[in-house]
Specification:
Layout lengths: L1 E4 L5 E7 L2 E4 L5 E8 L17 E8 L4 E6 L3 H9 L3 E4 L2 H9 L12 E3 H9 L5 H9 L7 H9 L3 H25 L1 E5 L5 E5 L4 H4 L1
Parallel strand pairs: 4-7, 7-8
Antiparallel strand pairs: 1-2, 2-3, 4-5, 5-6, 9-10
Helix pairs in contact: 4-6
């Protein structure tokens, strides 16, 4: 078997038989994040996430090796894109992103095969850590803005700024997942300031 190293360390495998190379099917993993139009305060609290409205959604597709960007008018296309995934990966995707997106679709988004890193981290640690915290300590990377800034941009009509911010979140989400998949741990810091490692089992093959 020969392997060709792809972007971000992914491999494209081929089996050679009778001098004919055949490509082996690899899973379509889609890394997903979205930004909203409204805050929890705007919609009367966190029980009303479904009322926050989609501002921008971004998907990175592991097979297409590119970003796909969707605004509210494209919400149905975003849902259809996610439905093509063998595995959708996100951070708080089950509790938040799908809840925001669900009003735009009759299809139950929870039927999509999904891996939520936040759910797994909380299950293993007993408490939540933010994507930004894990990215800083694991990847030496951090978010360029936050959700409140994104909401301000939406009110100002600066959609391109939201798209760039959301893309960076998807990049961080993807790279954190791939790090955990490759090395079997992610890094975090305790409240006392001690640097620690959390053992994880994020191999894609185990999630499909």
């Amino acid at each position: 078997m020969s392997e060709q190293l792809g972007l971000f360390g992914e491999t494209e495998s081929k089996v050679v038989k009778n001098n004919v190379a055949k490509k082996i099917d690899v899973p379509r993993v889609q890394y997903f994040d979205l930004e909203t139009q409204k805050s929890a305060e705007d919609v009367g609290g966190w029980d009303n996430i479904h009322k926050m409205g989609l501002a921008v959604g971004v998907v990175w597709d592991s097979l297409d090796q590119e970003f796909f960007t969707y605004e509210e008018k494209d919400a149905s296309q975003l849902v259809e894109k996610l439905r093509t995934a063998d595995l959708a990966v996100g951070f708080n995707i089950v509790g938040f992103d799908y809840t925001v997106l669900q009003p735009y679709s009759d299809f139950d988004l929870h039927e999509i095969n999904t891996f939520d890193m936040l759910v797994d981290v909380k299950k293993n640690l007993g408490f939540r850590l933010s994507l930004n915290h894990l990215a800083q300590h694991t990847l030496n990377a951090k978010k360029s803005a936050d959700g409140l800034v994104s909401l301000k941009w939406y009110k100002e009509g600066k959609i391109n700024k939201i798209i760039q911010y959301c893309r960076q979140d998807v990049e961080i989400t993807r790279d954190l997942y791939l790090f955990g998949e490759k090395y079997g741990f992610v890094k975090y810091q305790s409240r006392s300031g001690k640097n620690l490692e959390l053992q994880v089992d994020w191999k894609t093959a185990n999630q499909i």
